[in-house]
């Protein structure tokens, strides 16, 4: 890291990817104050997912703080997304992060993350340990917590079972389900399962590509929450602004910029992301917003 900066200067952008989660968080924390760094697995994933959720609010109504979030998976992707959602809620409501985190629940391989497990949790999971009885299964957690948004980052296929999706549909008019693990074999559920088990009411996006689904005469086009929406524009914004550090506020700016690119025509098809064919325009919009935020935060060398 020292050699890269010595060779290319203070403004060189270093992107981390595919580090094991126990290393990824530590590396990001270690170098974020001394280098211009970006972890795509943690920050890119979080930013693109937040954008989809912000866009989905235009369909279901309310603000982020009006919703309850449940994650299956508490690794670098899940906790990174959760933290950015909590940060955006804090920004919108002026509530402290300790309060906004309470709207967000995580389930890992041992069950719901609760305070009784705190001593044995990895450090990045501890902020998500809330006071609640331990629940071993996702279905039990869904039925008890009654989330409006269910997000899968588990890397384990078919964990959003028929019963889980039906439960989400039983207490939400339009349940929001993001099945983000990839490849397709590891997706928590398929698009067809999500639409069928919710009687076509789900707002769905996935990490893997799925073909359109026809249900009772209507064709739904599942969106893909792909980091490629974020990192080209995010990186361009950092570079063209001359930023020397990256901040979470820049990720929020990227999310908000992406969410505004979703049109009513996209929503009518069931999409909460704009078409990939618009990637260059989307990236330019994101870059402009990220660069503006860098100037605002005083992180630019120009």
TrEMBL record:
The keyword Metal-binding applies. InterPro entries: Aminoacid_DH-like_N_sf, Malic_enzyme_CS, Malic_N_dom, Malic_N_dom_sf, Malic_NAD-bd, Malic_OxRdtase, NAD(P)-bd_dom_sf. One of its GO terms (cellular component) is chloroplast. GO terms for biological process: malate metabolic process. Its cofactor is Mn(2+); Mg(2+). Residues 42-295 form the Malic enzyme NAD-binding domain. Keywords: Metal-binding, Oxidoreductase. (S)-malate binds at residues 182, 226. CDD domains: NAD_bind_1_malic_enz (cd05312). GO terms for molecular function: malate dehydrogenase (decarboxylating) (NADP+) activity; metal ion binding; NAD binding. Transmembrane segments: none annotated. Divalent metal cations. Prefers magnesium or manganese. A divalent metal cation binds at residues 17-18, 41. Signal peptide: none annotated. It holds the Pfam family malic. The keyword Metal-binding applies. It comes from the Eukaryota. NCBIfam families: PRK13529.1 (NF010052). Belongs to the malic enzymes family. This is Malic enzyme. The gene is LOC105118352.
């Amino acid at each position: 890291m020292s050699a890269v900066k010595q060779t290319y200067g203070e403004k060189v952008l270093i992107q981390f990817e595919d580090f094991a989660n126990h290393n990824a968080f530590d590396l990001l924390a270690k170098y974020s104050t001394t280098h211009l760094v970006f972890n795509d697995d943690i920050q890119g994933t979080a930013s693109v997912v937040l954008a989809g959720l912000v866009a989905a609010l235009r369909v279901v109504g309310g603000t982020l703080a009006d919703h309850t979030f449940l994650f299956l998976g508490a690794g670098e992707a899940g906790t990174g997304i959760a933290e950015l959602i909590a940060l955006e809620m804090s920004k919108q409501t002026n509530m402290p992060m300790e309060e906004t985190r309470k709207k967000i629940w995580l389930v890992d391989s041992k069950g719901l993350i609760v305070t009784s497990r705190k001593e044995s949790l990895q450090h990045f999971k501890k902020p998500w340990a809330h006071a609640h009885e331990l629940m071993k299964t996702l279905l039990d957690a869904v039925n008890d917590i009654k989330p409006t948004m269910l997000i899968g980052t588990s890397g384990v296929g078919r964990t959003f079972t028929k019963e889980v999706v039906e439960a989400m549909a039983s207490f939400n008019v339009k349940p929001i389900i993001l099945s983000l693990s990839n490849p397709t074999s590891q997706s928590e559920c398929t698009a067809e399962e999500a639409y069928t088990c919710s009687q076509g009411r789900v707002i769905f996006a996935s990490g893997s590509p799925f073909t359109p689904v026809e249900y009772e005469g209507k064709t739904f086009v599942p969106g893909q929450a792909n980091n490629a929406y974020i990192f080209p524009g995010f990186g361009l914004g950092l570079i063209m602004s001359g930023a020397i550090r990256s901040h979470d506020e820049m990720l929020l700016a990227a999310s908000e910029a992406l969410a505004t690119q979703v049109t009513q025509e996209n929503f009518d098809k069931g999409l909460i992301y704009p078409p990939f064919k618009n990637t260059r325009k989307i990236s330019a919009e994101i870059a402009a917003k990220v660069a503006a935020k860098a100037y605002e935060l005083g992180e630019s060398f120009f």
